[in-house]
Automatic annotation (TrEMBL):
<dbReference type="InterPro" id="IPR013785">
    <property type="entry name" value="Aldolase_TIM"/>
</dbReference>
<dbReference type="InterPro" id="IPR058240">
    <property type="entry name" value="rSAM_sf"/>
</dbReference>
<protein>
    <recommendedName>
        <fullName>SPASM domain-containing protein</fullName>
    </recommendedName>
</protein>
<dbReference type="InterPro" id="IPR023885">
    <property type="entry name" value="4Fe4S-binding_SPASM_dom"/>
</dbReference>
């Protein structure tokens, strides 16, 4: 975490100015080690760290992508359901989610030597995810901003991506304060307060 400002300074000095997005990586993922300084357990601490990172990027006048982390109406939770989003690893295995990289049974396909995409059976299970099919989601007030939550969380809980993957910490009080501090002018705190009480 302490080396992030150094990385941002490097990006600025070398005029590398793509939009930066900071996110939360849960411990225990296949492709990641779990350094103690990256594992954050308290909701408040998560958002304090994210705010620090966003402020650091703004200090260097680097473009910051906030849209994916702010609560908003959406048609899908993330790229897992997006038919145009793919993650290709160095072995040309294709995944729909960065948290599934390296877990062979969650590959959605493979790029052949000829450059063709060959889907796996999991491709159809992954791309067919629909939050409206989950009773818990249909009855949830957060559905318009959550759309079923994280497919990987639903795999961990239920063994399938086709179940609710609730991640409520972005909508806790600490999360709402974070969004407000980012300067979002849509009164997110007021709009979501009815959903979390």
């Amino acid at each position: 975490m302490d080396s992030i400002p150094q990385l941002l300074r490097y990006l600025k000095e070398n005029e590398i100015t793509f939009p930066i997005a900071f996110g939360i990586i849960r411990p225990g993922l296949v492709g990641f080690s779990d350094p103690k300084d990256l594992v954050i357990s308290k909701e408040r601490e998560i958002f304090d760290k994210l705010y620090y990172l966003y402020q650091s990027a703004q200090k260097y006048n680097l473009p910051v992508q906030k849209s994916y982390i702010l609560p908003r109406g959406r048609s899908m939770y993330c790229g897992h359901e997006n038919p145009n989003a793919y993650i290709i690893d160095p072995y040309l295995d294709v995944y729909s989610c960065w948290e599934m990289i390296g877990i062979e049974k969650y590959r959605i396909g493979k790029i052949t030597e000829e450059g063709e995409f060959t889907p796996t059976p999991f491709y159809y299970e992954a791309r067919g995810r629909d939050a409206l099919e989950f009773e818990k989601c249909r009855n949830c007030k957060l559905l318009p901003i959550c759309m079923g939550g994280c497919a990987f969380v639903s795999i961990l809980k239920y063994g399938t991506p086709n179940a609710p993957g609730c991640i409520l910490y972005p909508y806790c009080e600490a999360g709402l304060r974070f969004y407000h501090k980012l300067g979002d002018k849509r009164n997110i705190y007021l709009n979501l307060q009815e959903y979390i009480t």
